[in-house]
C-alpha cells in the first residue's frame, strides 16, 4: 500500500466510515496517520472534556461533521447539577476562528446558548445539519438565527431539548429561497406554532422526508401538511385530545392514505382513539412506531393499532399496553428488533394491573427472533423468566431492565436475580450494553466479569454487597468504556485497585457509594491523565478548604474521565477537580 | 359469643377512634420505620429514607418504601414532565373539567381546585377565551355581555355558573360551556 500515491490511499480511506476503523488505520504508520487525519471528515467525541477544540482542529483540518457529548448519562435523571458544564460555545468559537468548513453538528446533553446558535449560523456557509438531543440553554430566538442564516440547511432535528419558547416567528425566518429541507423536528417546543409559516415551508420543501411537529399543530393543519408532503417517510404528529368530526376524519384519512412512503410514526402526546384509527391504512408499512408519550390511550386501542403493524422493527410504547398487549406484539411483529417499554405510572400511585411483568418479556423473547435491543420497565421479574429470555434471544446487543422498586427480589422465590442476569450475559455473547436492577449480590458481577466480553456500558443501581462486585467487573470486562454506579456499597478498594484500567475507559460515575474523599484524592495523584471530579451540592461547597480528617468523608458524587487536556476551567463551585 | 362481640367492638373502636394526625400515621408506621432502619446494616435497602434519618436538613419523616428516590426510576426528565401532567389529570388529582366556548375551535381543560371562589374562575375563563362575562346578580344572572357561563351538573342539567355555593359547584360540575348570543338568553340575562 505504501507504494501508492497519497491520493489513492486517501481514496481508499474514503470508503471507511466507522470511527473505530479510522482510528485503527491512523495507528498503522506515520504516513497513514497523516493521510487519515488530513482526510477525516467526521469526528465523534464522546466526552467534550477529553480534548479541546484547538487540538481537534489541528489534528483534523478537513473536519466537516462533529458529534459532541457533554454531561454524563445520569444527568438525564437529575443527578448532575444544572450548572455542571458541557458548553458548546468554546467549540463553535474555535471552529469559526479556524474557518473550519463545518457542515454538521450533533450535540447530546450539552448547554447551547442563543449566542452559540447565532455564531454558528453566521460562521459556516455550508452548514447543513444541526441535531440537538437533550440539550438546554437556548430559546426559539436561537432557532430563528439558524433558520435565517443557514442558507443550505437540510436538517434541523431537536430531540427532547429544554427550549424556552418565546412564541416568536422562528418558522417565518426560513427565507423563501430555502427549499432544501429534508428533516425538520420541533416536537419538543412547548408554545404555539405559526401554522401558516409551517405550511408554506413544507410546501416549498419537496425533499422533506422527516417532519415532527409539536403539540400545538391541530388536526386540520396536520391534514394539510400531509397533503402537501405525501413523500414523507418519518412523521411526528401533535396532540389530538378531541375526537374529530366526520368530515375532518375523512380528510385526515385521505391525506394519510397518500403517504405511501411513511415508515415511521411518533408524537401522539394525546390522541383520541378515533384519531388513531385514521392511521390504520399505513400501519402495514410502518417499521418504526413511538407511542410512548400517549399516556391516555388505553391498552386495547394500542393493541388494535399494533395488530396492523406487521413490519415493525422498532417499537416504543408505555407499559399500559400490558402483558396481553405484549403478547399481541410478539405474535404480530415478527421483524421486531428494538423494543422500549416505558413506565406510565411514575410514582407508583396505583396498584396497576395493566403494567407489564416478566410474562410480557418472555412472550416478546419467544415471538420476536430478531430482537436485539430492549429497554423494559416493569414491576417484577423472576430468574426463570430471564433464563428463558436468554435462551430465546441470544442475540441481544442492548439489554436494559429496570424493576421499578429498588432491591426487589425474584417475586416467586424471593431470591436475588443474580442467576437471571447471569444467564443473560452468558448467552448473549455480543452484549454491549447492560442495565441491571432488582435484588443483586456480588455474584451477578462475578458473572458479568466472567461472561460479558463485549460489554461496553454497564449501569448499576442499588446492587452488590462488597468491593468485590465492582472489582469483578473492572477486571473482567476488557471492553468496558462507560461504567455508572449509584447507591451501591463499592468503595476505595475497588476504585483504586487498577488505576490503569481507566485509561481504557471513557468514564466512571459513582454516586451514593462508599468511596471517600481520601480515596479520590489518591486516585487523582496516581492518575494525572484523569479528571477526577467531586460533585457536592451541599452548603459548604468548598471541599478543598476542609482539613485532612475529612478524607474519610464519603463522596456524594464522583465522575472521572480520561482527558488529554487536564482539568477543565469552566467547572462551577459545586464541582471540585482533584 | 360474648367475647367475640367484645373483640369486634374493640377492633371497630380503633377504626373509629378520633385522633390528631395524618391518615395512615399510627403505631404501625413506627414499626415500619424501624424495619427500614434495620435494613441499613445488611443492604442499602432504601437509601432515600436512610438519608432522611441521617441528614440534618431534612426533617420530613421517612415514609415507607415507596418514597421518591432522587433520579428514580431512571426516566429522562423530559419524559417525566410530559407524562406527569397527563397522569395528574386522569387520576383526578385536581378536578379537571372541559370548557367549551361557542365559536371557539378547541376545548380547554381547567382544574377547578386551583380556584377558591367564582371571581377567580371567571377571571381565568375570561383570560383563556378572551371575552368578558358581565355582572352577575342573583335575580337576573349575567348582564352586560353576550357571553354566559354555564355548566352541566351531575344530573345532566345545564345550570348558570354562580347560582350555588362554590363548594357545591365544584363537586357537582361535570363540564363548562360558555354560551353566546341568543341561546344564552334563556338561561342568563333577565332581559
Portion in strands of chain B:
15-25%
What name is given to the CATH topology of the domain at 94-178 in chain B? Ubiquitin-like (UB roll)
Global shape of chain A: globular
Per CATH, the superfamily of the domain at 94-178 in chain B is Phosphatidylinositol 3-kinase Catalytic Subunit, Chain A, domain 1
What is the terminal separation of chain B in angstroms? 72 Å
> Got a strand count of chain A?
25
The gross shape of chain B turns out to be elongated
- Largest sheet: number of strands, sense, barrel closure of chain A: 21 strands, mixed
Describe what this molecule looks like in 3D.
In chain A, helix 1 crosses helix 3 (30-39) and helix 6 (114-123) runs parallel beside helix 7 (140-149). The mean pLDDT of chain A is 92. Chain A is globular, with a radius of gyration of 25 Å. Chain A starts with 5 loop residues before the first helix and ends with a strand. Chain A has a 21-stranded mixed sheet, with helices on one face. Chain A is built from 21 helices and 25 strands. Helix content of chain A is 32%, strand content 18%. By secondary structure, chain B is an alpha+beta fold. Chain B has a domain at 94-178: Ubiquitin-like (UB roll), CATH 3.10.20.90. Chain B is built from 7 helices and 7 strands. Chain B has a 5-stranded mixed sheet with strand order 2-1-7-5-6. A two-stranded antiparallel ribbon of chain B has the order 3-4. In chain B, strand 5 (147-152) and strand 6 form a beta hairpin. Residues 1-13, 24-65 and 86-92 of chain B have low confidence and may be disordered. Classes of the chains: A alpha/beta (578), B alpha+beta (191). At the A-B interface, loops of A face helix 4 of B. Chain B: One of its GO terms (cellular component) is nucleus. Chain B: Residues 94-181 form the PB1 domain. Chain B: Homodimers and heterodimers.
